[in-house]
Amino acid sequence: MKKKITYKRNPLLLGVSLLIVATSYMTCRTPYNPGADNYSKVGPAVELPEGADPEGPDWKGIDLAPKAPVLPLSPSDQAKKFVLQPGYAMEPILTEPQIEQPGAISFDGNGRMFVLELRSYMLDADATDELEPTSRISRWEDKNNDGVYETGTVFVDSLVFARFVLPYGKDAILTMESNTDDVYKYTDTDGDGKADKKELFTTRFGRSGNVEHQQSFLYWGMDNWLYSTYNAFRVRYDGSTRESTGTNGAAWGVTQDNDGKIWFQGGASGVPTYFQFPIHYGRFNVEDQLAEGFRVPWGSPVLISDMQGGMDQIRMPDGSLNSTTGGAGNDVFRGTRLPEELVGQYFYGEVVARIVRQINPVVTEGLTQVHNVFQDQKQEFIRSTDPLFRPVDMTTAPDGTMYITDMYHGIIQQGQWTPKGSYLRTKIEQYQLDKAVNMGRIWRLTYKGMDRDKTQPRMLDETSAELVKHLDHPNGWWRDMAQQLIILNGDKSVIPTLEQMARTDKNLLARFHAMWTLEGLGALKPELVRELMKESNPRLQIQAIRASESLYKNGDHSFENDYKAFAKNTNTDIALQAIMTLNTLDVPDAASTIKTVIAANKAKGIQLIGEQILNPPTTGGNANAMATFNASEQEVMKRGAVIYNELCSECHGDNGTGTLISPGVLMAPSFAGNPRVQGNHEYITKVLLKGLSGSIEGKDYAGGVMVPMGENSDEWVASVLSYVRNNFGNSGSFVTTEDVAEMRTKTASQQAFYDYNELISSIPKALTINSNWNVTASHAQPTLVGGKAAASGAFSFEGWTTGVKQIPGMWFQIEMPVETTISGLEFDSPGARTQGTTPPTTLETYPREFIIQVSMDGNTWTQVAQGKGSSRKTWIPFKPVKAKYVKITQTATAENESPWRMQAMKLYQVGSISLASN
């Protein structure tokens, strides 16, 4: 039986008209790829699954006719397919065959361009050989200064899907590979353009899993800390120190604005993820930070409708994307050779929509809302009718323009989103997109009448004194690089010059960089900071407050009163900065100061951020969740929270309710109160290990599939599952590393994603207690009358308890009226408060040790399990066995007066189950 193709049906789809339009469009394309012989003139017709009805609701209206392939265009022909705003042009400066599948670029101090070449990415629809060591980082120069990068070397070769490239001083870069934990520094010591020295820079930096779920874009911020996507920490520029930050929710893109605020770009959401304030102050929840309509992209007609979410995510009849889903790369433009109105605007690529979007940040009462500049016109800053245009990075270049990194690729979703039988796989095969590989272009965006800056940087050959002058440069790239190189040089002879620049330079941005360069050199003095705090410019005052945090951390607590005074400033932005600093540094009496500020300053930003500082949002809505867990469980929850917020929240939502991308459409299912999530752990464990595709209880989600994450360790999987099962209003047993290891073994033969209906039929089903069950126990809670009534309370939140200290021989028994096949049981054991002690203490009420026995007649018993309790949630699985009687016997003595207590008990059998969709 062939697997059913997963998609979302759109009754407005006119298949015949689409075929006519698409065919006429494709036939006018110019073949270019040297490998064009690999393409068929017309692709094969898509076969329906066996037994599928072409006129049925699942298939009617879907165009499955043979198609001409999407053939690559030459760079000159591709340039004609761009739809640009008036006055702009795109010119290629580096293309295949010199480079292949570029993912990002960056420049060293001499303006040489490093290209991250992800040569193993999606070479076919199954992501074959994706983790082979074939990726590289190449370095390119424009030696004749004609604007084209013609001279290149392979700086580092044979990498396993490298995550980023950050130039780091003279002839050196930082990078790391996928599925590793270490960042390395690679240096070219002999000047041949190839790194010959490899040194460990920092560790505990990475993760395993899908290549789209790993950290990327290492970025040196103006505050001299290194930031990356996913990771909820930052690392000092020399790799020596790290600090926890808020979760950034980003996938592929980190940049900063002229004030050093880091901007993070989401992946699956297709929108920026965090940009309100510097992330080291934590992540604050701000509603409506995306302007109305922001999630609607306005790409040009690409006609082929190759969107992973299926027809509900496609605007017909032009086949373009109708809701953002694939963000990549970002840049706050800080150059000089494009119109001035672009400076400070945020740009990013939406690779599925084939657009580059221009965002205008609007700050009101301290809070930022982002707007698509061309939303009202139903346009984007850059669009293309070429389906292979994949803008994965944007960069302010040394020449003052913006460079666009275009992977120019057929398939942009990783292989776990393109399984056989899926809607997207259908479109890939229809248009032979899997054959458009091994290409890539870097474009320069120019504007009519504004030539690029032809001054070639030579900063790697300059003295620190010469570098200081570049801190005054109008192009942000020059300022950033000069600051970095001065700090890495460690030359303190320039300190007086930097201090003078910080005090008196006419360029406000030069003053910022001079101060932060002093901070990076360890030469920032308190008296200089206080001078700058007294300046009249609020932006400079805010920079001074931020820079002073380094001095405070090093022991100079004399700034406490300054922070408290600034918190009462009438300027909302200054006051916000001060209360965030007070909170982050844990300044004494910070809370009382913030309360005073909230009472006096009614600006929306003050009220919102102040309230979240004083009353941090509870994780998932369980206000007292952590208090109910023991110390080891709390550690598991903390690990799980980090994983969830770094990786899962973009699709499943900060509060577990799912990310809403359009009215009624969620990116992924809600976890809140989800019976599948908090039921038997086999369901959610299998999903995380092996993935899930298709509808869930008849409901589709924009994300289409849940990709497997089994590449991660058992501890990793157990932590995030336990967190999800005990947050968002859920209450489930903790998943242990042993549970995960056992499930890995059980599912080893499962190669494809699970289909929901197949999966749910294999999950143990909780039996419903009936009135004809006879539930008895050796002990009964004294306040209840009758052992039978008291014991049956174990199946509800009424609960059952021995009422006295646990000793061997205590038992709890269930008699069912008919023979039943059972495979496990679970129950809660809430803590019991002692009476008559000061202060009151909580006794752990789980059974210390136990055996599980079954019987057909109540006389002859067979042991099926034994174990030790360790937490308030006890899950006891065993091989399926037929029984009428089930007995739990307590076999140890409690170390204190702890009774044995059980509630919310569930007895499981293997079988199909139907749960309400959530």
Secondary-structure map with pairings?
Blueprint: H1 15-26, H2 75-79, E1 82-84, E2 88-95, E3 102-107, E4 113-117, E5 135-141, E6 151-159, E7 166-167, E8 172-175, E9 183-187, E10 197-202, E11 219-220, E12 225-227, E13 233-236, E14 242-244, E15 254-256, E16 262-265, E17 272-274, E18 314-315, E19 320-321, E20 327-332, E21 346-350, E22 355-364, E23 367-372, E24 382-384, E25 391-396, E26 402-406, H3 423-431, E27 441-447, H4 464-469, H5 476-489, H6 495-504, H7 508-520, H8 526-533, H9 538-553, H10 560-567, H11 572-584, H12 590-600, H13 604-614, H14 631-652, E28 660-662, E29 665-666, H15 675-678, H16 681-690, E30 692-693, E31 705-706, H17 714-725, H18 737-746, E32 754-755, H19 756-760, E33 764-766, E34 774-777, H20 787-792, E35 800-805, E36 811-828, E37 832-833, E38 842-843, E39 849-855, E40 861-868, E41 873-890, E42 899-910
Assigned CATH superfamily of the largest domain: TolB, C-terminal domain
Return the domain count.
4
Oligomerization status of the protein chains = single chain
Main CATH class of the largest domain: Mainly Beta
Question: How can the largest sheet be summarized?
Answer: 8 strands, antiparallel
pLDDT average, as an integer?
88
Fraction of residues in helix = 10-25%
Radius of gyration, CA atoms, in whole angstroms: 30 Å
Range of strand content? 15-25%
Which structural class do the helices and strands define? Answer: alpha+beta
Distance between the termini: 29 Å
CATH architectural arrangement of the largest domain? 6 Propeller
InterPro entries: 6-blade_b-propeller_TolB-like, ARM-like, ARM-type_fold, Cyt_c-like_dom, Cyt_c-like_dom_sf, DUF7133, FA58C, Galactose-bd-like_sf
GO molecular function, one term: electron transfer activity
Keywords: Heme, Iron, Metal-binding, Signal
Protein name: Mono/diheme cytochrome c family protein
